[in-house]
Structures are given as structure tokens and as C-alpha cells.
Amino acid sequence: MALSNGASELKAGPSTQAAAGAKLSALFAGTLGPLIGLVLLCLALSLTTDTFLTVRNILNVLDQVTVLGIMAIGMTLVILIGGIDLSVGSVLALAAMVMGFVAHPDHLNLGMPAGIVTALVVAGLCGLVSGLLVTVTKLPPFIATLAMMSVARGLANMITDGSQIIGFPDWFTSLSIIRHFGFLSVTVGLMIVLAIIFAIFLNYRATGRSLYAIGGSAEVARLSGIPVKSLTNWVYAICGVLAGLAGIVLAARLDSVQPSSGFGYELDTIAAVVIGGASLSGGVGSIGGTAIGVLIIGVLRNGLNLLGVSPFIQQVVIGVVIALAVATDTWRRRAQ
Amino acid sequence: MSLDPSHTQTPHLGLFVSGLCKSYGPVQVLADASFEVRPGEVVALLGENGAGKSTVSNIIAGSTKSDAGTITWRGKPYSPASPAAAIDAGVGMIHQELKLLPDLSVAENVYVGRLPMRGGRIDRAAMNARASAQLKRLGLDVSPERKVRTLRIAAQQQVEIAKALTLNAELLIFDEPTAALGSEETELLFQQIRKLKAEGMSFIYISHRLDEIAEIADRVVVMRDGRIVARHERADIPVRTVVEQMVGRSVERMFPPLSEPGSETLLEVENLSSPERSFQNVSFSVRTGEILGIAGLIGAGRTELVRAIAGADPISSGSVRVAGKPVHLNGPAAAIKAGVVLVPEDRKAQGVVLDQTIGENLAIGNFDHVAPNGWVFPKAVQKFAEAGISRLGVKGRPNQAISKLSGGNQQKVIIAKWISRPPKVFILDEPTRGIDVGARAAIYDVIADLARSGMAVVVVSSDLEEVLGLSHRVLVLSRGRQRGILDRSEASNVAVMELATS
């Protein structure tokens, strides 16, 4: 945040420009470092491969990050208030299984709309329970969501006794395949719209600003009359719903749902948010930053694939990037 | 009594403290402190909050370094680099907040860091037997294998003493040992001190309970503003004399003139009690334009009381009315809505969000004003912040990080946050703690202005001068009980301290 002030002051030329710069930097508060990283990464890949910088490949990257991107929006809210949600991968699987079970002709056969709504409700309830475990039972968020991670995974397996459900209507799977206007699939559009809505929410809504206050100091927020507990419950519930939505998007992409899906996604999600400049102690972070973090992970995977690097080495590289991103952020803060 | 330290330099193998000084930045917290502790005696160290008692003790116990001065202990120069070095030299300190490991056993706590070993493994049998012997010496009958967490505070304290004994301590410093003890437990502690004294151990005893001093101490040293102001060769001194020496005549300070309070009662507190009994049956009222000071020693329940009135902590019984209407105290939001606002005690942890700007800090708690439809626009925040900043003369801009401001300016931001509502009852807990003496006058002016504008103001402070200089009336708390409300005309240093130490 302080950095964005500095940046806008540096830019201070004609006052209108400065104001516009300040507005832009507010949306991408504290994300200059990750943004530079993303640009350098894209530059390097453009130079080393001839396939990276093609429209088709860029659209591929966007398609590939939809699930991660939608989950990361919810995780941004949770991390902003100083929490953590380890259950998103399991909740994703549970929501997908619930949708399949309710909608699929082999099971309840109640139609896709009923399946999607039920899935989102179940995912939201999972998040709400995590929230209540934090606010009422006073469990540390790590433990509360670790428990939910196990419970949701178990429930996802119980629905079909561990087997997958295959085959959804064409219109549903085409949501992630057909590119409207020549470039935008519905699922990518959904991710972008959600990101914009939540960016506006966090920047310009009183409730959004309150989340920053809670993360900065829950006690200051409480003494200022902000309903810390109920907002915390809401944030976990919304994070659950978004994880559920990501599960539905994944189902559309794969034309199937399986109880083992989303395994380990919580760590990718947390990594994206943290690479995007959010602080795990809360109060610092933005949707803009998270978008950059998601893109860094997406571009890195895509690029390493194009370069023919083995997936095992990819894991090593992503680990190094996480450490580097957070270390530079820490150094920069200390330097201030 | 004598102020000349030279006459006390009789040769013995006790502790000689001579000319100790300590400053933190520009603030001198200890100036030329000299006294002695002879073998087998208890010296009581008395003084108000912040008089320098803890600093002296911490230097002797090795947890703080002095800037100047020397200490001689058992005939040798002594300047411990760490608490461990002090312990090696036979000097131990029992802190007010006990430093035990609650999930380890009694014996493990006594021998932590030097567990008896045998063949590479902990010799539990020897450890338990030795710990047991020390506990028996103190007259404490608990199993050495019991977890410390399951013991009462008094017993935990004795575990600390037992630990010091096994470390062969010859001098023990007690910081407020009886603050958490009942009268029987206090008596037991005194018996133990007398017994150890007879064995030749020395004690420095810090307490706010002046009635105890005559019973346990042999001599008394009184401190004020970082200096030793009196040494008494005996302990049965009239409480009034000690109190006068403790509060003394301080430097003349600038307090703004107070305006006459109005006649309408704004805040009524009736029989308020806390669930933890940190305060009980407190009743008072404050009128428009009136400043009520709340005085008391640390732990008297002042902060707990005002936090409860502001809805920050739950109450067990009693009621609060603002302008005649009962306030449902179920959270800060309800209190703020009813017009009660609090400037909390710990500015950094409870008052400001350090990661945010001045403007953002001002907007927290005012979203109903800044964002009437829920939309927070940077321009509105900027305008709101500029109004608050200019009203209180904060030296800063709305988009500046609040962490870069001085303590005084941060405090003004917290006051500015609430001032625009406007509140009916303004509570300030330790409004000048950690603020430069020079910047305090500005805060005093702000507080007097709050009252002049018709609010009922409540000020809690450990600084007695401040309470007396700012308040129309002073409520005195001691150990959670209301000891009286003194009018400005009758509220003197001595009158307040007598009630506060009762």
C-alpha cells in the first residue's frame, strides 16, 4: 500500500495523470513486484519459444487457470482477514460430486440447474461451518479448515462410494469450450467478471474496506464497531461458494466429476495469493495482485510445458518462485 | 531517614547499589539510584507506577543494562550481562507474571535448563526427590510430578521460589508478589520469607500494598520519577508519610482551564460488575461538559471498567444509561451507536491499524458517515480525513502511513476518528501513555475541548498529576472496588493515593 503511494508520487506529473495513476495503483495496490515478475516471465518465454506468444496459447493459459483463479478470489478474502482456508480443494470435490449426484441421470436426475444450486449451497455451508469453528469455537483457522478439508473429502467419497460420475449435457461442457466473440469461453468470462466484482467490492464497498481493517488488526476493527465475527463467517462462506463454483467449472472442463479431484489445490491457491503480494498475517493484498499471482503460476506451468520441462522439475521451479516472491516482498518491506 | 547514601556504606557482604542511571532515548527513567541490602533483611522498594522500581530490579536481575553506576554484591563488583549471569551470582527475581512452563511438571519447572542427567537420560527420580525436598522446605505439599497448570497461582509462585532456592539464590527480588494472592496465601508467603531471612537470604520487595510493608519489610526505600527520594531505617512508618514521599511535588505542568460542567446527566453507571471480578459494584454518573478521572494502581480494574462501558468486554451485572436511555452492552458497535466511544489503552494494538493510512484509519468506524450507501470513494475518505486532521491539528496527510506518525499524532487520529459523530460520552484510557511530555499538553487541550463542546468525558490514567489536572471529579478504584469519588477541591495526590492503596 505504501509502495503504491510512492509509485503514484513518483509519477506525479500533471495532476490528472497522477489521479488516474493513483486510481490504477489502488486496484493493483502493492503488486508492482509481482507484475514486473510476470512481465519478465512472459518476455523470457516469448524469446525462448515461438509458441508462447500466440493468441491460441494465451487463451489456453486463461482456460487453464479458471479453476485456480476462481478459488484464489475466495482465498484472497480469507487471507486478507488474517485467516487461511485449507479446505478449498476438498470443498471443490464435494461440490462437484453433489452436482453430479443431483443432476446425473444415473443418480437423482433432477437436472443441471438443481445440481449446480445444491452444489453451491453445500459448498457455502462447508465454508460457513469453517467460519463458525473459527468465530464461535475459537479454533485457529488452520485447524478449523484442516478439519473441514478432511470432512469434505470424506463426504465427497461417500456420495458414490469413491467412483466418478461421467457425462454431462453438451451445453454444460461447452461452457468451457466454445469461445464466444472468438476468444472468451463462459468459464473464463465468469472468472473475469468475478474478479472485477470482488476487486470493486474490496476497494469501494464499506464491507470490503472493513475486511482490510479486520486483517490489519481485528481488535481495532472490533473496537471501531465493525462486526468482525459475522464478517469472518461470511468470508469463509463466500470462499466455500467460490471453491464450489470452481468445482463446477472443473466438471465442465472434464465432462466428469470425481471425489479425488482438487487434491492439493488449496496449496496452489494459497501460493497464487501470496505470490500476488498478500500477507499471511492479514490486512495486505488485493484481487489485482492475486490475478497476477494466478497468471504467474499459469504462465509458468504453460511455459515449462512448452519448453518440454518435466512436471517434476516444474514443481521445483514453482516452489522456488513462491520463496523468491515472498522473500523479495519481505526484503522490500524491511527496506522501507 | 537520610538522603545521603555515604553513611550507609558499612562493610558487609550484601548488595550495594550506587549511582545507577538509565535512559530510554531522551527519557531518563532512573537517575543516580543508590541503596543497599544487607544479608538477611527485606528492603521494600516503594513508588508510584513508573517511579523506576522495575528498572532498578531489572538491572539487578540482569535483564536490563544500566547506563551508569556500579553494583557490589558479596564484596565483588557485579554487573550481570543476562538473567542467567545474575542467577549464577545468586540473584533471582520472581516476576509479577510468573515465568513458568504451564504444561511441564513442577520438578521439570524447578530444574528446567539443568535437568539432572544420568547415562544420557534425565534422572527423573533424582529430579523429583530434590524438587520435593525444596518444596517441603517451603512448606508446600504438592507432588513434583504435577503439571504446573493445575496449581493455583499461590502454589505456582512457590514453585518459582523453589526454583530460585535450588539455584542457590542469596538475594531474591519480588515484584508485586501478593497482587494475585488472598490473605491466607499472603501470610504463608510471609512466613516463608521470614524463614529464608533467618537463613541469611536477602530480599528486595516491591509492592503497592503499603499495609504489608510494616509487616514484612525491615527497611524502606521510596522512589519517585526515577530517583530515590527517601530511605527509612525501619518499616513501621505512617502510610501517609510514605504516600507523601511517593507522590511528592512534581514539576508544574500545563493543564488547560476547565469549563463549568452542565447540569444534565449524560452517563449513568449503576452497580457494574465484571464476570472476572476485575471490578465490582461500580456506580457513578457524568454530566455534560464534565471530565471524570479514574485513578488507581495497575490492576485496580480501571481499564476493565471503561472497556466494559464501551461494550468491549462483557459485564456480569449492572447497567449503563446514556442520556437516560439504557445501553444494551453487547459489543462496541452498540455502544458507539448509543454515543459511547473509547480511545483504548494500547494505541498500537487496539487503536490504529499500522499497515494503513491516516485516512483509512479515520474511515474505520465511520463507514456509516463516509459511505452512506456502502460505497467508499477515495475522495469522500480524503475529505472526511482532512476535516478530522485539521480539526485536531494532526501533523500529517490523509494518504500518509499512520505508522510514520508520532505517538501524539496517532492519538489525535484516534480521537479525530470519533469526534465527528459526535459522541455523547468520550472515554480515554491512558491518553498520554508513551507520548512525549511536550506533546501531552496538546492532548490535554483536546480533552478539555471535548468537555467544553458538551460531551461527558471519562479519563483513565496512571499518571496521578494528569488525572488531578484534568478532572472535575476523580473516582478511585482499588482492587476492583470503588473507594470513593473525590471532588476537584478535595482531590489531592495524597488523598487519592490513600484510597488507591487501601
From TrEMBL, chain A:
Q: Which residues cross the membrane?
A: 24-47, 86-103, 115-136, 142-160, 181-202, 234-252, 273-300, 312-331
User: Which cellular components does GO assign to this protein?
Assistant: plasma membrane
- A Pfam family name for this chain? BPD_transp_2
The subcellular localization recorded is: Cell membrane
Which UniProt key words apply to this protein? Answer: Cell inner membrane, Cell membrane, Membrane, Transmembrane, Transmembrane helix, Transport
Q: How does it sit in the membrane?
A: Multi-pass membrane protein
Q: Name the InterPro entries for this protein.
A: ABC_transp_permease
Give the GO molecular function terms: transmembrane transporter activity
User: Would you say which domain of life the source belongs to?
Assistant: Bacteria
Q: Identify this protein by name.
A: Sugar ABC transporter permease
From TrEMBL, chain B:
Q: Which GO terms describe its cellular component?
A: plasma membrane
Q: How does it sit in the membrane?
A: Peripheral membrane protein
Q: Which Pfam families does this entry report, sorted A to Z?
A: ABC_tran
PROSITE patterns xref list: ABC_TRANSPORTER_1, ABC_TRANSPORTER_2
Q: Which UniProt keywords apply?
A: ATP-binding, Cell membrane, Membrane, Nucleotide-binding, Repeat, Sugar transport, Translocase, Transport
The record's section on InterPro entries has: AAA+_ATPase (IPR003593), ABC_carbohydrate_import_ATPase (IPR050107), ABC_transporter-like_ATP-bd (IPR003439), ABC_transporter-like_CS (IPR017871), P-loop_NTPase (IPR027417)
Principal place where this protein is found?
membrane
The record ties this protein, via SMART domains, to: AAA
Q: Name one GO molecular function term.
A: ATP binding
Give the superkingdom in one word: Bacteria
Q: State the compartments where it is located.
A: Cell membrane
For the ABC transporter domain, which residue ranges apply?
15-250, 264-499
* Family recorded in the similarity comment: Belongs to the ABC transporter superfamily.
Q: What is this protein called?
A: Sugar ABC transporter
